[in-house]
Design a protein that fits this description.
eight-stranded mixed sheet; about 50% helix
Amino acid sequence: MAFFWNKKKTKEESDKEKESLDSGLGKTKRSFFEKIQRAIAGKTTIDDDVLDGIEEALVASDIGVDTTLKIIDMLEERVARDKYMNTSELHRILKEEMVKLLDIKDEENRDIPVFDFSHKPYVILVVGVNGVGKTTTIGKLAANLKAAGKSVMLGAADTFRAAAVDQLVIWSERAGVPIVKQSMGADPASVAFDTVKSAVAQDIDVVLIDTAGRLHNKINLMNELTKIRNVVRKVIPDAPHEVLLVLDGSTGQNAFVQAKEFTKATDVTAMAVTKLDGTAKGGVVLGIADQFRIPVKFIGVGEKIEDLQIFDKKKFVDSLFDE
């Protein structure tokens, strides 16, 4: 049941969602919380030793050096301004500042919606290297959107891997949504074109287009994504409406490298961070969002369909600090 895609949730559904999040972030929480507690053990005020310990805890959680230093600078400013600050206030201040770092607005300083269904069809181009859970994320998105009452169509434009097309076909069957595909090695842009053309003809709400995840030649990647954009715009002039970058949270700092390369190759507008349930590196979500100023819209905290959650920055940060 894709309860978290509906605006109104029962208490039972909210509790189940929180349980899934807490469980999925379990390894990150234990590692992060223990290091923070160790940094403040026996202290009554925040001093240089406490700050050093917090810095170490943040870096170890793969938040990244730049974002960590930003947080430490903020803490130092608060300590200097307030003169006296006890360690019991530390969690509250850290949580406030982390939520601020995750609060990414649009160019007009407005909140960015998870979906913008004013576009129909709403075209989402999904990018990311092979192995990050890109195709699975597309399948889960399709299943959840379908369960929430939206009509969905998939486009299998990762034509360089037979397994990618086969996997997407399985997800289309599981979710009960149509898929457009061609033979192995077909032109990805041609698949994308056929997909959006079919979606318009069938009055589909959301289109999810899978793309090849190759980084060995950035020029080819850039050219391919540009070509897909151009042919899609022949059918829908303002599409794609979202370019969703899928990253594997368990790779830690390597996810930063992937984000850097893909943001150079195309105009990434949103991110999904997967596989957070198998790692203590969940802090990468915070670092990537802060460094690239691109909103994280989805996180994967388990294998089940409902374990792909719409990202809630406050709930995410609160979960990190829950004992």
